[in-house]
């Protein structure tokens, strides 16, 4: 055989060989997971999974698959069992899957604590960063949050209060995002980006970050996320501080703050950046982690606040009951009559805590599969009283939507927003619910480092907004627009009217 259709025989043989390898690879994947059922096409192709990512509704598709199956792609399993997911996150040998986490890199060929898939490097970096997030070394943490929250309240009161004579629409999705980014930049870098003060997306940071997230999600969906990290060409695609506007400008600003701090050895501020430096994170690594905390910390917390607010203001019974608890707290001295409520005081308000917990259960603010590589030797897990062997070489992830809406755990009305479920009298059942609910923030060595910061921020802002204002959606038929990109929700057009309360 000298040629086929004018092509040299060597080219034909190479193409045939590559096709053969692809077929063999798919056959091995099918054989490896043949005992795990999934939608028909998932036995052979990633197309159903890619389609769900492309439509930016992957979290809903994962939940639908979990109702009947355990497989979402030829080499990818999924679970909604909290015990299985805890096991996967606790047991040595599992690691984050490159296919997802590499796509979550912000910089070219540089890992941060979230995207790092090497277990030893990830563990070491967490140890260096945890004290700064916990508040033990960030003594001004709550004060910084209070200052940002007071600016946020003042902004609404000065520009966006409606009256009987005039409605002033406000996109609460955008304002909450301004607030969240100011908080994380303030507690993380020692100075805010000034979003709330200027009531604008300074330098287009947020718009560019959202566009970048959607591009990353699209690239993952079509199987091309690797290009942004590819040698040579990736340098021209990945975000760069040299870009003069938008996200590049945000990176440059963040890096400048870090450079200024490292250059000033006498700076005694007690914020996250100072803690990171004290624990040995310097130079390019310090810039990488500072940038990651800004991007991840603002997106996740702002999503949580918006989710909680929407569930409250669209449920009159819950809204009235929560405002009653808030008013009574102020009148009885459980909360200050002036100034911002403390974190410890928010924790003493049971219905506030139940409402926050319940809204984040019904709609987890971070909802991707967070895939893990199963150890090469495989592993055995317990599912509904039976041992199930997970073959090595495959991946396993979880569906937050399916897990946190499970009727087996939360009751037959698990998909309904009902804060009262957290006052369950059966203590054993309540313990299972609480244990499962904590997985919203991850588990073990993968638990969200910013959990405590987010909880402080969320409790305070929900209390203070409902203390001073009555909030109503402008468009009940479409209260917002929400899309899922890489597990983070891009929420916009949450138009509301805000009226001052007579308190």
Automatic annotation (TrEMBL):
Molecular function per GO:
heme binding; iron ion binding; monooxygenase activity; oxidoreductase activity, acting on paired donors, with incorporation or reduction of molecular oxygen
Where on this chain does heme bind? 448
Q: Does the keyword Heme apply?
A: yes
Q: Which domain of life is it from?
A: Eukaryota
Look up the record and name the pathway of this protein.
Hormone biosynthesis
A Pfam family hit: p450
Co-factor requirement: heme
What UniProt keywords apply to this chain's record, in alphabetical order? Heme, Iron, Metal-binding, Monooxygenase, Oxidoreductase, Virulence
Q: Which family does it belong to?
A: Belongs to the cytochrome P450 family.
Task: Tell me the protein's name.
Answer: Cytochrome P450 monooxygenase ABA1
Organism whose genome encodes this protein: Trichoderma longibrachiatum ATCC 18648
Upper lineage is:
Eukaryota, Fungi, Dikarya, Ascomycota, Pezizomycotina
């Amino acid at each position: 055989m000298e040629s086929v259709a004018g092509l040299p025989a060597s080219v034909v043989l190479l193409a045939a060989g590559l096709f053969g390898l692809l077929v063999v690879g798919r056959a091995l994947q099918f054989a490896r997971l043949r005992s795990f059922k999934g939608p028909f096409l998932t036995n052979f192709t990633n197309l159903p999974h890619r389609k769900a990512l492309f439509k930016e509704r992957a979290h809903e598709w994962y939940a639908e698959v979990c109702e009947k199956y355990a497989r979402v792609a030829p080499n990818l399993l999924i679970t909604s069992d909290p015990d299985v997911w805890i096991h996967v996150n606790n047991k040595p040998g599992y690691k984050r899957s490159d296919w997802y986490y590499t796509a979550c890199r912000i910089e070219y060929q540089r890992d941060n604590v979230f995207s790092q898939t090497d277990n030893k490097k990830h563990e070491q970096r967490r140890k260096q960063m945890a004290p700064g997030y916990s508040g033990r070394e960030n003594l001004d943490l709550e004060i910084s949050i209070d200052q940002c929250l007071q600016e946020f309240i003042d902004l609404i009161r000065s520009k966006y209060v409606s009256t009987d004579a005039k409605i002033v629409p406000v996109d609460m999705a955008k304002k909450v995002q301004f607030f969240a980014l100011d908080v994380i930049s303030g507690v993380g870098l020692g100075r805010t980006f000034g979003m709330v003060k200027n009531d604008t997306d300074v330098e287009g940071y947020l718009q560019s970050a959202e566009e970048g997230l959607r591009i990353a999600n699209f690239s993952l969906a079509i199987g091309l996320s690797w290009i942004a990290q590819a040698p040579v060409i990736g340098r021209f695609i990945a975000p760069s501080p040299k870009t003069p506007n938008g996200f590049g400008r945000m990176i440059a600003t963040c890096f400048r703050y870090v450079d200024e701090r490292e250059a000033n050895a006498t700076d005694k501020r007690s914020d996250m950046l100072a803690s990171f430096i004290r624990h040995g994170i310097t130079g390019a690594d310090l810039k990488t982690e500072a940038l990651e905390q800004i991007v991840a910390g603002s997106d996740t917390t702002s999503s949580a606040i918006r989710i909680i607010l929407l569930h409250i203001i669209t449920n009159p019974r819950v809204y009235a009951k929560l405002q009653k608890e808030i008013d009574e707290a102020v009148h009885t001295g459980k909360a200050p009559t002036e100034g911002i409520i403390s974190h410890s005081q928010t924790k003493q308000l049971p219905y506030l805590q139940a409402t926050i917990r319940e809204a984040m259960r019904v709609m987890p603010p971070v909802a991707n599969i967070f895939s893990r590589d199963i150890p090469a030797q495989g592993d055995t897990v317990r599912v509904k009283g039976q041992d199930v062997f997970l073959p090595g070489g495959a991946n396993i992830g979880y569906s937050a939507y399916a897990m946190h809406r499970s009727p087996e755990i939360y009751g037959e009305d698990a998909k309904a927003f009902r804060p009262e479920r957290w006052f369950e009298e059966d203590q054993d059942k309540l313990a299972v619910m609480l244990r499962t609910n904590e997985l919203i923030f991850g588990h073990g060595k993968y638990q969200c480092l910013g959990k405590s910061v987010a909880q402080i921020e969320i409790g305070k802002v929900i209390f203070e907004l409902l203390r001073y204002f009555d909030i109503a959606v402008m468009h009940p038929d479409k209260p917002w627009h929400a899309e899922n990109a890489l597990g983070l929700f891009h929420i916009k057009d949450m138009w509301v009217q805000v009226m001052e309360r007579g308190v």
